[in-house]
Design goal:
This protein has 292 residues and is an alpha/beta fold. It folds into two domains: 9-164, Rossmann fold, CATH 3.40.50; 170-290, N-(1-d-carboxylethyl)-l-norvaline Dehydrogenase, domain 2 (Orthogonal Bundle). The chain has 13 helices and nine strands. It has helices at 17-28, 44-48, 57-60, 71-80, 99-111, 125-129, 141-146, 151-154, 166-194, 199-207, 214-225, 234-250, 256-273, and strands spanning 9-13, 32-36, 52-53, 63-66, 90-93, 115-118, 121-122, 134-138, 157-162. Strands 3-2-1-4-5-6 form a six-stranded parallel beta sheet, sandwiched between helices. A three-stranded mixed beta sheet has the order 7-8-9. Strand 1 (9-13), helix 1 and strand 2 (32-36) form a beta-alpha-beta unit. Helix 9 crosses helix 12 (234-250), helix 10 runs antiparallel to helix 11 (214-225) and helix 12 (234-250) runs antiparallel to helix 13 (256-273).
Amino acid sequence: MHETPAGEQIGMIGLGLMGTALTERLLEHGYRVAVWNRTRDKADPLIARGACWSDNPLADCSRVVISLYTTDVVEAVLEQLQAGQHPGLTILDTTTGEPEQTAALGQRLAARGVHYLDAPISGSSQQTRDGAATVIVGGDRAVFVQCADLWPILGAKVFHVGPCGSAARMKLISNLVLGLNRAALAEGLAFAEALGVPAQAALEVLAGSNAYSRAMDVKGRKMVERDFSVQARLSQHLKDVHLMLDAAAAHGLSLPLTETHRLLMERAEAAGWGDHDNSAIIEVLRKPRQLP
């Protein structure tokens, strides 16, 4: 169990897949957690496990973790809860956000005496729940060090990559490679099935060869078994892909593989797979006769 200052309560804003996993981690490691979500009923299972509801964690806590869909949503929620902002407050924002918008948000909060770290998490909600995710952090290094007790709870590895906004950039880079690894695995397994090779047999060989990627451990079985229960939603990653393409275009760079990935994910979303796990991308690559 990690040491926390006597009586300290950690705030958690946003109780989607990732926010719920993070709250569970904090509770399991003995932290007191005050939770808030725009739809309060999502908090009930966590309250049953020991969390408490707060109408404004920014007011009730000195350190608050945020896990929301976009930076726009983060800004809207912080505006809604602005009365709770106070000098010395530290916000750890795990949202995968737009880099420039994230950096600007950090500057505005700093002007109010609020410390802001952009701290997106590389890994699914299940990997986070298992303590196996990676945390990428941008912001003042002294504030990063002050949160040393929290980083091992949020992930197995942590990287401080520079000033505020740096982590948002690095997360998009990480998600680009991760997403393409997942898409390549899906295409490879669909190719195997089309050639008459059982997908499970192909996965075993791929995982034991130089073609290996961690996506095989995390998503391979789900693709083979068509188990698309959600660890990370397909539509969530498509949102990130749009952020990648926008950022690349702003710097005069084309991302042809990511553009193809976008088209595949949009096809999957149009086919009704958006709210399923992102491993469901394989369904738009399989031959029609292979579909359920």
